[in-house]
Amino acid sequence: NAGVTQTPKFQVLKTGQSMTLQCAQDMNHEYMSWYRQDPGMGLRLIHYSVGAGITDQGEVPNGYNVSRSTTEDFPLRLLSAAPSQTSVYFCASSYRGRHTDTQYFGPGTRLTVL
Amino acid sequence: AQTVTQSQPEMSVQEAETVTLSCTYDTSESDYYLFWYKQPPSRQMILVIRQEAYKQQNATENRFSVNFQKAAKSFSLKISDSQLGDAAMYFCAYRSPVNSGNTPLVFGKGTRLSVIA
Prior knowledge:
The complex is a heterodimer of chains A (114) and B (117).
Chain A: E1 4-7, E2 10-13, E3 19-25, E4 31-38, E5 42-51, E6 54-57, E7 64-66, E8 76-78, E9 87-94, E10 104-105, E11 109-113
Parallel strand pairs in A: 2-11
Antiparallel strand pairs in A: 1-3, 3-8, 4-5, 4-9, 5-6, 7-8, 9-10, 9-11
Chain B: E1 3-5, E2 10-14, E3 19-21, E4 24-26, E5 33-39, E6 46-52, E7 60-61, E8 64-69, E9 74-79, E10 88-95, E11 106-107, E12 111-116
Parallel strand pairs in B: 2-12
Antiparallel strand pairs in B: 1-4, 3-9, 5-6, 5-10, 7-8, 8-9, 10-11, 10-12
């Protein structure tokens, strides 16, 4: 299994540009989520999904869109990038069963918005 | 909403010694999961240890163990025989039961651990 994969690893955008961060998992996990990590802030939840076709907002959803058309993929879209969105972005996934609750993380995407 | 607090932004330990990282949390739920994740300079989030709240026995994984005090809402991580490779940022995290419909992780702000040779 490849686990959770994220692309790209690094990205530089100009203010106002749009882009999509890709996330895929091959473990047939129902739950997927996006976090951002800023210095001194830990990881904060942006959006999450409990299954294909179902998404919900997290703590910091503004400026981001998500969709979940398949179990495997959960892309994160930045509609109009702002410098405040400079961060490291992590995708994570997990099973739904009670005893299989561990979240597995992708390697992260470092995004810089100029 | 649940919150997780790590009161030690930075810690240091001598190689081969023992160090304890603190974590407290706030919740009204009786059943939940607690985790410690390690983040080395590579940025990869690595699961160190997990604890299920309904289990009274403290979790142990090799040199890593926890002191889970449910009544006090405390979940500390003890690293024994510290090694240079243990140097990293450590995050404490909380998760509601997966069948509650709201299961993302809630993270503390992290503790940066340095290991001195």
